[in-house]
Write a structure and sequence with these properties.
By secondary structure, the protein is α/β, with parallel strands linked by helices. It has nine helices and nine strands. Helix 3 links the parallel strand 4 and strand 5. The chain starts with 11 loop residues before the first strand and ends with a helix.
Length: about 270
């Protein structure tokens, strides 16, 4: 787990899965792939295998070892609902989140059909937990709007959208049953442009619908220079977070052992 994440809308990241494959235009300049491939072939490095998809069971119970409540982005370097991640392992990851309920978990996917299917089925008992937020990426109309509909059809206490990188005017959004919207421009080499009018349209729709709005960045090749101000102000809104007491260490360790045994990961 990485504490003090540089991602503006989370506190920490947790990667029980590493690596992914591209499925839509938002993946074209994937920051995670760029980072991971730098270390391909470096013996002993967490990304010795580059961005190849693989499970990392030794990372599975890490949130249970963290006593300080954090907002945790799940699989910042992968996608929990990737077709290469088996259902037993997905359930194990979600079971850890359910148990570590003093944290807030942010689960973001582009595989919205699989998210919907599992939250309606095997993961149904976890779906309405208020400390697990379920989200989809929506970088454009063609790929993003159907994902939003899939998310809305899934049972969940908190649903959110990551409209990032915003690649076009996404048009009119149906924000019913959506609690939070993040948007921002692409950053790094080859970053595609984003127009202010596209962002303002999303901001205004969120305001009208009573949805929390977070503007992450303008992006560009040097995102530190373009900053985060939209019409002269920052937008850092979040949904309300649930709270729960932290389990004593001995109980957390026992829960970790039980989950590892249950899913044959110990």
């Amino acid at each position: 787990m990485s504490d003090n994440s540089k991602i503006e809308w989370t506190d920490a990241t947790w990667n029980p899965v590493r690596g992914c494959t591209k499925i839509s235009p938002g993946c074209a300049h994937c920051y995670a792939e760029t980072f991971a491939e730098r270390f391909r072939g470096v013996p002993g490095h967490p990304y010795e295998h580059g961005f190849d998809l693989r499970l990392v069971p030794e990372k599975l119970v890490e949130p249970l070892r963290w006593s300080k409540p954090r907002m945790i982005f799940v699989n910042s370097m992968s996608d929990l609902f990737h077709e290469g991640v088996n259902e037993d392992y997905i359930e194990a990851v979600v079971d850890v989140m359910a148990t570590a309920n003093w944290h807030t978990f942010q689960v973001l996917t582009k595989r919205s059909l699989r998210l919907r299917s599992l939250l309606q089925g095997r993961l149904r008992r976890f779906a309405a937990l208020p400390h697990i937020w379920w989200g989809v990426s929506a970088e454009n109309r063609k790929h993003g709007l159907p994902r939003i509909d899939h998310l809305r059809a899934a049972p969940a206490a908190v649903r959110f959208l990551s409209i990032e990188p915003l690649l076009e005017d996404i048009g009119t959004l149906d924000l019913s049953e959506i609690a939070w919207v993040i948007t921002g421009g692409e950053s790094g080499a080859g970053a595609r442009p984003m127009l202010e009018s596209w962002v303002c349209s999303i901001r205004d729709q969120c305001e009208e619908a009573g949805v929390q709005f977070f503007f992450k960045q303008w992006g560009g090749v040097r995102k530190s220079k373009t900053g985060r101000l939209l019409a002269g102000k920052t937008h850092d809104d979040f949904p309300a977070r649930s709270s729960a007491p932290v389990l004593p260490l001995v109980d957390r360790l026992e829960c970790a052992s039980q989950i590892q045994s249950q899913y044959a990961l110990g």
